[in-house]
Amino acid sequence: MKELRTEIEINANSDIVWNVLIDFNKYDQWNPFIRKIIGEPIEGSRIDIFIETPGGKNRKYEPTVTTVNPELELRWLGKSWALNGEHIFSIEKIREGYVRFIQRELFGGLLTGFFGKSLDTDIRQGFEEMNKALKERAEHRTG
């Protein structure tokens, strides 16, 4: 099992951050990493995710939404014969009008070890770019 984790503090209420996060139809307007999601944030539903890494790699994933806990957590799980990935978005309230957004991926399966370097560079950078873009969009909505 390998974990990739990034976080950022956002000057916005959890409901604002949550609403930006689950509005999949608008990801192409602000998200530099997850360029598009087709589907709905409903537990048990299958979604299509299109990412573009900072290194220029384009990928499509078809995970299943496993957790929708409004204003707290969104999770999806993708499985293949050799690599599994659980993506987790968490929102933690720090104080009124201020949250910590945490983005994690838990990788497992036979091929996990082969992706070590690309996970630690390209994918991590993609997470960080998305976090910054989410912060900017959520903070802009408050003001």
List the helices and strands and how they pair.
Blueprint: E1 2-10, H1 14-22, H2 27-30, E2 34-38, E3 48-52, E4 58-61, E5 64-69, E6 73-79, E7 84-95, E8 98-108, H3 116-142
Antiparallel strand pairs: 1-8, 2-3, 3-4, 5-6, 6-7, 7-8
Helix pairs in contact: 1-3
Written description of the protein model:
This protein is an alpha+beta fold and 143 residues long. It has a single domain, classed as START domain (Alpha-D-Glucose-1,6-Bisphosphate, Chain A, domain 4). It is built from 3 helices and 8 strands; from the N terminus they run E-H-H-E-E-E-E-E-E-E-H. It has helices at residues 14-22, 27-30, 116-142, and strands at residues 2-10, 34-38, 48-52, 58-61, 64-69, 73-79, 84-95, 98-108. It has a 5-stranded antiparallel beta sheet, with helices on one face. It has a 3-stranded antiparallel beta sheet with strand order 2-3-4. The radius of gyration is 15 Å and the shape is globular.
